[in-house]
Amino acid sequence: MSMTFRVVARASRGFARAGEIVTPHGIIRTPVFMPVGTQGSVKGMSPEELREIGAEIILANTYHLYLRPGVEVVRDAGGLHSFMDWHRGILTDSGGFQVASLADLRSVTNDGVEFRSHIDGSRHFLSPEKAVAIQEALGADIAMALDECVRYPADRGYVRDAMRRTTEWAKRCKAAHRREDQALFGIVQGGVFPDLREESAKALADMDFPGYGIGGLSVGEPKEFMLEALEHACAHLPEDKPRYLMGVGTPEDFIEGVSRGVDMFDCVLPTRVARHGTAFTAAGRIIVRDAAYARDFSPLDPACDCRVCRNYTRAYIRHLLKAGEMLGLRLVSYHNLYFLIRLMRGIRASIVAGAFKGTVQEIGDLCGSK
Amino acid sequence: MSMTFRVVARASRGFARAGEIVTPHGIIRTPVFMPVGTQGSVKGMSPEELREIGAEIILANTYHLYLRPGVEVVRDAGGLHSFMDWHRGILTDSGGFQVASLADLRSVTNDGVEFRSHIDGSRHFLSPEKAVAIQEALGADIAMALDECVRYPADRGYVRDAMRRTTEWAKRCKAAHRREDQALFGIVQGGVFPDLREESAKALADMDFPGYGIGGLSVGEPKEFMLEALEHACAHLPEDKPRYLMGVGTPEDFIEGVSRGVDMFDCVLPTRVARHGTAFTAAGRIIVRDAAYARDFSPLDPACDCRVCRNYTRAYIRHLLKAGEMLGLRLVSYHNLYFLIRLMRGIRASIVAGAFKGTVQEIGDLCGSK
Question: Do residue A316 and residue B85 have CB atoms under 8 angstroms apart?
Fold first, then answer.
C-alpha cells in the first residue's frame, strides 16, 4: 500500500490542520511530534515505552545507520521496523543534514556529497540515488529526498544554488525511488529568503510528492525570519499533502508551526535537555538537578498524568541525576517525550473542536488537556 | 509485624533448603537472588521492570545513600520504599563493606570506623549504633549489623580481631535496634579460617538474630577456601533462620551456596558485566559486543523467555552497545537479572520437587525450567 493523507479539521483561519496519514504501519494523527531515534533507538527509551506514551511515528537517521551498523545488517534483519522491534511508523531522513553537520564534509557537487565518517574517517559518497537506495533498504514508511541544508547566515547566492541543487536532487530521487510501500518526500530549501522558498516550494509541488519537508530552518536564524520563510513555503505547497518542519520542536514552535500549516515535527530537544536535567512542565521548564528540588516530593509536572509523574518525585529524580544513575535520564526523557506528544494531542483536539487560536499562551491549557 | 522464616523443603542431604521469608513488603521465596540497587536504583532498571522479572527483594547500600542524597531526604520521602517507588522487599547493608572498599578509610577502632567520603572527602564516623539508626531511617525490611570485612589474604590475628570486633558490634547493634517492622541480621566473619568461622557463627547464634549474613567471602580467596569457610559457618548457624551469603552471585555460586545451606544471595555481577556487553545464557556467557554477533538475529539466550529475548536480537543489542545507546545496557541488564532470578526459581523448584543434586552441571537444565 502507499501512504495517504487527509485533512479532517481546520483552524487558525484555515492554516492549522488536523489530519490523518495512513501508512503500512498504522495511522498517524497529525499534527504529530516524532521522537528522534538517531541510531535506531530513541535515547533512554525502549520501543515498549514509546508505544506506551502514544508515539505513532519516530524518526531515524540514515547517516548514522548507514555508518553503523551498516545498511546490510538492517536489511538482513528485515528492515528497520524489525531490527528495532518498532512496528509503528518510521521516517528516515536522507543523511544530507548529518553529512553537513557531523561528518568531515569534503565537497558538495551537483552529483552529490563526498564526506568522511565521524566515526572512523572512512570516505563515502552520497548521491541522490544512493540516498534513496539506502532508505529503501532501511524500509521506513516515509523517506526523504537528499537535500543540501545551509546554515544561517549564508550568502544569498549560495542559498539559491543549494536550493536549486536540492530541487534537481529531488527529481533524481523521485526517478530512482521504487518501493510502493514507502512514501518519498521532497524538501523545500531557500534559507530565510521568501522568494527562494516560493521558488523551491513551487518546483517541488510540480513534481507531485506525497508530502514535503521544510528544511534549513531553526539553523541559527532569528525566529521571525524562520516564521516568514515557513509561511512562504507553506503558501506554495499543496493543501492536500502533509508538511514536515524538519528538526524543530519546542512547545512554542509547535503552536507557531501548526498555526502556519505544519503537520509534522521532529526534534532531539526532549531527550537532549533531559541529559542536563531539564524537564518540560505545563508551567515552563524546570532544571530538576537544581538543589531547590532536593526535598521536593511532588511530581516533575503536577499537571501531567504520565507514568513518571504518577510514580516518582522530583527529589528522587534529582538524586538519580546527581548520582549518575541511568534511570534519572530515562525518567526525564520519558516525561519530556510524553509531554510533547500530549501537547500535540491537545493541539489536535483543539483544532478538531474549533477552539485552537494558535497563541503560545494556550500551551499551559493544552498541556493539561487529554 | 516482624519478619518470619520457614523452611518448606530440603535437598542435598538436607543442606539445601527452599523457604519463605515473610516481610511487611511481601513474601520472599528462598533461595533468592537480590539485585543490587546501590544508590537507590538497580543500574539500568526501573522498579516496574524489577517487578516484571519477578524480583521479590532488592539490596540498597547504606554507605551510598547516607552520603547521597542523605538519610534525611529518604526519611522525609517516607523511607526508601516510597523514595524509590519499590514496594516489595528491601535489604540494606550496614555500610561497613563500602567504607572499607570505597571510602578513604581512616581508622577502625572498637568504637567504629572513621572515614572520608569518596565523593567530597568529608569526614564521617560510623558506629554500630549509627549504622542501625541510619538503616532504621531508610526503613528496609532487613537491616545488617555493622561488620568489619577483611580482604584475602590477611593475617590470622587480624582476621580474628576483626571477627571478634564484628561480634561485639553485633551485640551493640541488637541493643540499639528498635524498629519492629525491620529484621536485623548479624554477620559471620572469620575469613578462611574454619575455627574462626565456627566461633563467629556460634557467638551470633547465641544472640538469636532473625537471620544471619555470611560476610568476607569472595574477596580474593581460592574457591575451595570459600566453600570450606561457608560450610563451617552454616554448620553452626540455626536451622530455622535464613542465611545470606553476601556479595556472591554467579550461577555456579548459587548452586554451591544453596547446596551448603545458603538462602539469600546478592551480587552486582549481572548489571556490571552488562556494561561490558556480557550476557548470561543457558550455554554459558557470551560477549554480545563481539563482531561475531553483528548479523546474529537470534535472541541473547535462545532458552530464555524474557521480554528482551522475546523481542530483540543479538545483532540489534550489539549495535546499541557499539553505538553507546543506553538501551543496549538496559536490555542486557534486564536479561541478566531475569536469567539469575529464573535460575534461582529453577533451583527452588528443583528442591521442592526433590530433584536438586547441587552440581554445576545442572545449570543448563535449571535455566530452561520455569
Answer: yes
